[in-house]
Design a protein that fits this description.
By secondary structure, this protein is mainly alpha-helical. It has 18 helices and 3 strands.
Length: 482
């Protein structure tokens, strides 16, 4: 997806590090006749395919209507977390198989119809203005005031985790004052239940996503305010920062999902430092209850399938028909057919893996990488577009572990409020289903112990080793009290 450069473009580029190739660069690379050869990894040998003949071009279809997707939200007053998350969703699986069949037939009409169906399924549902956080976030974008040079240096020190001097703190407070209107609007937007920026996803990888860089700026502002503020102001700010990433959850692109993961993990420490479950609004608890990172990743991979296929059915250099966005003719370049077949099959397998927890997938993810490594020379597009799958799944697992520990911590606080102390073990919590108590990195329950007047709750993290909840570098920890 294309992203307009802005003040935060270097930071935004870092978010794309989880992609084998940043998608905002892909279209120019493709249209430059694929001059870039990317280093990638893949696993089983690709299927052989005979070139097909493309039928005469069919008339272009109109854009499909925006689909509906209903998500049942918990009531704001709910005291405990639900035993399970209920949602009504599009049947993604029923759309993928017809698309793959259409690709392998190289029937223009079938491919277009299948892509239209896929676009309809992945496009977020429209949101009424009164419920749409995006309208307030856009107003906040317009109020953003860039930092001065001194404020930039102070902000850099803050996000690097360096101790701040009194002078740097003063610079940062001035920066926050200049952006008070943007921060206020961001807080108002975070209270709205849904978010849709009205992006036209039909253009695939050429879609522009200028709102993502701005959302990163807003999150940085409210995180900074949570550090320099006190009491209610600090708690409120870190809650807003934690909610901002979820505003991108329904967007069908890997970039949006990666930004959401980063927002979740980036606010984890600040949430603990300002831990006060009774002081947070219902938005945070509701978000933790309904957050479904697996479904978000599935939608993103479907978006990648759509965008990839659109590159094959769009006009490329060498085609002469004015305005004819046809499929390159396999009779003159048969490798296009083989390449797209290989890429679509790869994405189908990755999509299937995205339904499963991370701890089950290590061998399969290595297999995806090995397939890429052994991809034939003709698979230029597959090597260019294939995602860094293992990195995506690992980042999702980290965000799931953060979500899980926060969700359980609220349940632990409720237990203490009703019974006077924290439970001896997580088994005493009846408000959370057993499946939601499992560490995504192991499939076993999260580690937990009472400690002093609080507790330590943690995931073993990506190395899979139990460090006793004492290594912030390896474990994902939620610690309350002394």
């Amino acid at each position: 997806m294309a992203v307009r450069a802005g003040e935060e473009s270097p930071a935004l580029f870092l978010y794309t590090a989880g992609m084998r190739n940043p998608k905002r660069l892909i279209l120019p690379l493709v249209l430059a006749a694929l001059v870039t050869t990317m280093i990638v990894v893949m696993k089983s040998p690709p299927p052989e395919k005979s070139p097909s003949v493309v039928p005469p071009q069919a008339e272009e279809k109109q854009d499909p209507p925006i689909p509906g997707e209903t998500v049942e939200e918990s009531s704001p007053g709910q005291a405990d977390l639900p035993a399970r998350i209920e949602q009504t969703r599009p049947d993604y699986d029923s759309i993928l198989d017809p698309l793959l069949a259409a690709i392998r037939s190289w029937d223009k009409t079938r491919i277009r119809a299948a892509l239209d169906d896929l676009l309809e399924a992945i496009t977020p549902e429209p949101v009424p203005d009164a419920e749409n956080a995006a309208l307030l976030y856009r107003k906040a974008f317009a109020e953003l005031v860039p930092p001065s040079d001194d404020e930039k240096e102070a902000r850099k020190a803050f996000f690097a985790g360096n101790p701040l001097t009194l002078e740097q703190e003063e610079h940062l407070r001035r920066y926050l004052e200049k952006n008070a209107a943007a921060i206020r609007l961001t807080g108002e937007g975070a209270q709205r239940p849904k978010c849709n920026f009205g992006v036209d996803w039909s253009t695939g990888y050429s879609t522009e996503l200028p709102h993502i860089g701005k959302m990163i700026q807003l999150k940085s502002l409210v995180l900074l305010r949570s550090k320099l503020g006190e009491g209610e102001e600090a708690r409120r700010s870190v809650e807003i920062a934690a909610l901002l990433g979820d505003s991108l959850a329904s967007e069908p692109t890997l970039l949006s999902q990666l930004v959401q993961y980063h927002s979740i993990t980036d606010t984890h420490d600040r949430l603990q430092e300002n831990w006060s479950p009774e002081g947070y609004g219902p938005g945070l608890a509701d978000s933790l209850q309904t957050r479904d990172l697996g479904r978000g990743l599935q939608r993103a991979y479907l978006g990648e399938i759509y965008s990839s296929a659109m590159l094959f059915v769009s006009k490329f250099p060498g085609e002469t028909a004015e305005g004819d966005p046809g499929i390159p003719d396999p009779a003159t370049n048969p490798n296009w057919a083989n390449d797209l077949d290989l890429l679509a099959g790869l994405y189908r397998d990755i999509y299937d893996l995205s339904k499963r927890p991370y701890h089950e997938l290590k061998e399969e993810l290595s297999g995806i990488e090995a397939r890429l490594e052994r991809a034939p020379e003709f698979a230029e597009m597959t090597r260019l577009l294939a995602p860094a799958t293992a990195a995506h799944f690992q980042r999702r697992a980290s965000a799931e572990a953060v979500t899980g520990t926060q969700r359980i911590s609220i349940a632990l606080a409720n237990h203490r409020a009703s019974r006077g102390n924290y439970p001896v073990s997580l088994a005493e919590l009846k408000s959370i289903a057993p499946d939601l108590m499992k560490d995504p990195f192991t499939g076993q329950p999260y580690r937990y112990r009472r400690e002093g007047n609080g507790f330590v709750l943690y995931s073993v993290g990506k190395d899979g080793l139990d460090n006793g909840g004492n290594s912030k570098e390896e474990d994902i920890i939620f610690r309350v009290g002394n």
